[in-house]
Amino acid sequence: MADIIQLLPDHVANQIAAGEVVQRPASVVKELLENAIDAKATQIKLLIKDAGKTLIQVIDNGLGMSDTDARLSFERHATSKIKTASDLFNLQTKGFRGEALASIAAIAQVELKTKQEKQEIGTILKIEGSKISVQDVISTPKGTSISVKNLFFNIPARRNFLKSNAVETRHIIDEFQRVSLAHPNISFSLLHNDNEIYHLKSDNLRQRIIGIFGDRINDKLVPINEATDLVKITGFVTNPKFAKKKRGEQFFFANNRFIKSNYLNHAVLSAFEGLLANKYYPSYFIFLEVNPSSMDINIHPTKTEIKFENETAIYSIIRATVKHSLGQYSVAPILDFNRDSNLDTPYNYKNKTKKIPNIVVNPNFNPFKKESYKTQTKDWESLYVGTDTLKTNLDTTKIIIESELSQTKLFEVETDKPIVKTYQVQGKYIISTLKNRLLILKQNLAHQRILYEELLTKITIENIGSQQLLLPTEIDFTKPDIAILFEIKEELENIGFQFKEFKSDGIIIDAIPATLPQEKLVETLEEIMNNIKLGVPRNGFSQLDAIIKSMVKSMAIKVGQKLTTKEQEEIIDKLFSCKETNYAPNGKQIFITYSFDEIEKKFN
């Protein structure tokens, strides 16, 4: 039998490796930014076009490369960061596998310009699908500029799996935030389609957090700081009263490398125990500094999953450190067993002068004298003067004594009272009958379907109106969220929103859709942005549909909300007047039914 095993060509092997290393444009951004940091750059600029699908360019002022190194950097397993296997257990750099540039060059059109400080001229390389088409000298500044164009141009199937521009941009911004947070001493800037999203100057960690998430986060930050032989912990958590319904800004770094760890995340949440409402989450920016030999980062190509040698101990230290900081900065209560809080002077009375109360005594008063009793009796009798002349039409036969009202008969049927058709259970479900079946309906999903069809009709047919706000409302958002809102500004205006201004850290709204309660405004905009981030296509009806679904989700009655019988009946009547009665806008089933025969069988 002929031999069937053969070595793969390099360009095929690189494409296979690219499947692990480069999953989307954000993967390229991460690798290029980390290379710039390893090159000791102090200024890094990231430029992207069309969410990185057309262009990803990183420009740095780092060490640069020689002509030979520039060519060799695109070979597989070529790296300057490790030399022996033992180096894997003492890593001080970001990358080390030597696969990133080779993988990127296999699936994109790459242009590299680089020059070392002492060189008079630099090097330019152009590579397309792992093949070098140009290698020449060029006049270029010190450092490296690498452009990645038309990602997945030679793998159309992979390109088709990319999400919408809004989603891919969101992933790029996430990677940019992680890298820039880990290195506040480096200046970073990000431009998308020539619009500057971030310009971050070299500063301390607090200022870097403010630069990314806005000035208003400054007052929310609670510093943490603890040093032990095992781990050094620094960073910030946010005040519990600023917790969010969705997991937002939660960052863990180990030796300035962003990591994901559900285990350590639980340590932080347990420190907030008793301080957060149900399903609310704090934000945190926590940096761990450990001995490199005590952690393993070589367990996944993205290098975000890490194993610690003393993970249980680190968990306990993180929990204690966060809990201590919350107490130290008067965010959480502190127990002091040496003091009786009942003896504390109320704040409003601390500085008041003490006054001796005035006591007035009548020396002539004698309670045993008859005159005193007669005088008191006489005074009381004067209150009833003239009452005998009062007339009343009160019919005492119609008076019902309270005790008679409470003595009702068990299972008494009142024939003049209407029979209740619906019942609400657990603040979630409405139970009724439908023809010869028992109906169990989830009120939140039913209301979403009703609102969805009503809004869709008003927006597409009746042209929904706007309600002017008494005063323009300013809402805080991060820069990436503002960019998302600006992208869908036209669609939002078509359904009744009116924007006065888009600021760097928020928006100002003049009017909202007529059907949207003002107290639901912030929740609705957050729902809209979350749906956009989840990958709804940015085109025509799909975009409008996503916005309407976001609105009805925030406007619908919530789980736990008590409804009157009339409201329950109204929901059932309106639901069965809809075009689609079985499923909510999110595709979930609204109700279930049981025949009475099925129920009867349960008792046999």
Task: Give structural notes.
This protein has helices spanning 10-21, 25-38, 67-72, 100-106, 156-160, 165-182, 205-213, 262-271, 311-328, 370-381, 402-406, 443-462, 479-487, 489-494, 521-533, 540-555, 565-575, 596-601, and strands at residues 43-49, 55-60, 109-115, 122-128, 131-138, 143-149, 187-192, 195-200, 221-227, 232-238, 250-254, 257-259, 284-289, 295-296, 307-308, 423-425, 429-434, 437-442, 466-476, 498-502, 506-513, 591-595. The two termini are 69 Å apart. With 604 residues, the protein is α+β, with helices and mostly antiparallel strands. A hairpin with a 3-residue loop joins strand 16 (423-425) and strand 17. The radius of gyration is 35 Å and the shape is globular. Helix 12 crosses helix 17. The protein has 18 helices and 22 strands. The model is unreliable at 334-339 and 401-419 (pLDDT under 50). The strands form five sheets. The protein has an eight-stranded mixed β-sheet. The chain has three domains: 10-200, Heat Shock Protein 90, CATH 3.30.565.10; 205-328, Ribosomal Protein S5, domain 2, CATH 3.30.230.10; 429-591, Ribosomal Protein S8, Chain: A, domain 1 (2-Layer Sandwich), CATH 3.30.1370.100. The longest helix is centred in the last third of the chain and has 20 residues, at 443-462.
